[in-house]
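## Example record

The block below lists the input lines for one assembly entry, exactly as stored, with component labels intact.
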Amino acid sequence: MYEQISHSLLNDILVELKKKTKPQNMQFFYTRLGANFYAIYSLFNTLYGEHPDSKKHILHLVETLMHQYISRPSHLKKIDLEREKDHNWFLSQKWIGMALYCNGYADNLKDMLSRLNYLQELGVNLVHIMPICDCPEGKSDGGYAVRDFCKIDSRFGTFEDFDKLITNLKKRDMLLTLDVVVNHTSDQHEWAKKAREGDKAYQDYYFIFDDRSIPDIYEESMPEVFPETAPGNFTWDEAMGKWVMTVFNRYQWDLNYRNPEVFIEMLDIILFWANRGADILRLDAVAFMWKKMGSSCQNEREAHLILQLMKDCCQVTAPGVLFIAEAIVAPTEIIKYFGEDAINAKECEIAYNATFMALLWDAVATKKATLLNKGIHNIPSKLERATWLNYVRCHDDIGWGFSDADIVTAGYEPLSHRRFLVDYFTGNYEGSLATGLAFGRNSETGDARISGSLASLAGLERALKNNDPDAINMAIKIILLLHGMILSFGGIPMLYYGDAIGTLNDDSYLNDESKNDDSRWIHRPKMNWEKAMQRTQPGTVEYSIFNAVKKMISIRKEIPAFADRNNRELLNVDNPHLFVFSRFDQINSSSRVLVIGNFNDEPQFLDLSPLQRMGFFQYDSIKNLCNGESLHAMNGNLMIPARSFYWLEA
Ligand code: GLC
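Predicted structure tokens for the full assembly:
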């Protein structure tokens, strides 16, 4: 948009920058800057207009964009242009992700090279390597307490290893996702050190207070993220003699985005990793980026404006790079991280579908899809050019993030239902074989989140211990059912390393003092490659899971209706155990898939007549896309085996 004030400011800025640099080949930079500058200026002005040096900062911001553009490698600039042309590329059904630690899945970045074949064998073509930046040993929060954003942790390797890996990934047509921890730094970061030494400019990078008066007011409305291990949201720093805001762990200092310098520093870091070759950047803990007294300090409007500004700036320098919002918040809030009132994502193109994940686990525990159906109906539709990241497990705990209102409409009482879920997944409910651990238990309500590997939560660990073939089989079915859902729902499925071979809980973290108070480490194991070899041995658990997931992946890639183009219809059926939705190909409307998940441990029947009246199943036989076989209805009813799913040609 052309608007005089911002346009004349931009002209002044460009004249200023021309004095300093004589850049060449800037055509694309200028067209993008021209297109986005009004938005950049407006957002910057809303956030930082009152700042005394606001003009100086916006010059610094544009200078940062320009420098990073100049240093952007030409092969990445080429990809930017390709993705601009094919701007819906990431909505395709061909993308399958896996999240992993480079020193858990492999030994380090170098060793990752020898482990890429496994990913390709499975069909994974998007790898999320969890944080690799330099962190203090023992106080790293799994890499999310960064000491130096532009240095690779020596435990993982060097930039040389990283570059080799990324070159290899590109050759294999695989995408790379990396984290940028935007909300906080380690207390050992250079900025924190300077703040500790008394440098006022750096104290303004954080929330630092002489006494408890302001922190106490904040505390009145701020929830606790890690109530057991890091209660409260402020930490006394002895050396500085002051209180610091630390929402997560005590050694993670929250950044102060009211300071424009902080914004520009973090943007520079985002662009640094974009220029290193990341295709997608996972922005960590974005819901927490704006702190306001009297509020929960989550999902504030300004946090969204910051993300919009980050996106608008990134589009100028590295438009091919996408953002993932890691905002594990209420369903109605998550959706806002795509950006509101827009068609294209104006904040993050991808967001964790934490609601779907939690609802799937609810369906496993209740053996019913009642809450799943209600909860999914209430997720507002996403924007056209945005997509979900669908997952069953990740490196974090499972929180019961659906709304109490949905629990009530599903016929349960919220408090007791949430307690039931904790009891179920910690194996304290009759009939449950799950072996999870409670995480972040709230002593007043008994509410807790859950740690544990997918296989252990699905009951495989106990079934193996009991040497019970039926229970083993049922656990495998649950694992496949959950994968069957995330692979067909619409969005990018993100598998978790180890899950395709049924990796169980690993309690070795208990021997490590820096980890033993954080039960999330139980599901962050070292990949057992000997166990992984069993995937070639028919009859083994590893074989059954790996080959079924592999097959689903390859089938998904061939079904255009599985691309995420707002082409899903949820269907109400009169069997509470079933979750049913259809996916259709907008271009070829005759290509429709009906997805049915049976969450009960008994076979269930689906009355096909209402579906036939809606135009589904007009032929005698029904094709199961997972194996090409024909299914037959009995008296108009289709039988879906226990804890199983179908992808049916409809
Ligand atoms: C994100 C990460 C989590 C970490 C937290 C604080 O939620 O996924 O592992 O503990 O941020 O950095």
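The CA atoms of residues 441 and 448 lie 4 Å apart. The chain has a mean pLDDT of 96.
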